[in-house]
Amino acid sequence: KTHVIHWVRLDCYNSIHKAYEDGKNRLEALLSRLHSSNVPTLSAGSIKLNVGQFGSALQKSTMSSKDYKKSVVQAKEHILAGDIFQVVLSQRFERRTFADPFEVYRALRIVNPSPYMAYLQARGCILVASSPEILTRVAK
Fold this sequence. Notes:
Blueprint: H1 16-34, E1 60-61, H2 65-81, E2 93-94, H3 101-111, E3 117-122, E4 125-130
Antiparallel strand pairs: 1-2, 3-4
């Protein structure tokens, strides 16, 4: 089930009717993109992507690798102590890209068809999020 929402700032419009119509049109455009027949035909769990074309590594993260590893150790200690039985550690990554954010969302939806996904646009920021379960495999 997908919930599509468009927030309209009323102070940017001369009338509530105009704000409503603009919001409705933007929702219809997004729904059209969601239902378009141009859905990538990738098999679950596989996307071939030349990451070299995107330049350097991540530009911003909410914590260092050292701090993240420390959090993992602390979580394990809490599990062994019986304080918790499950934990979800999260980390925010940011980078500039020329990729269409909605296409990134669609690719994530195919690789990891999780109910825990989000695509949000707000004030110059676009958030694409997905449950990290399948995205964190370690291959040796």
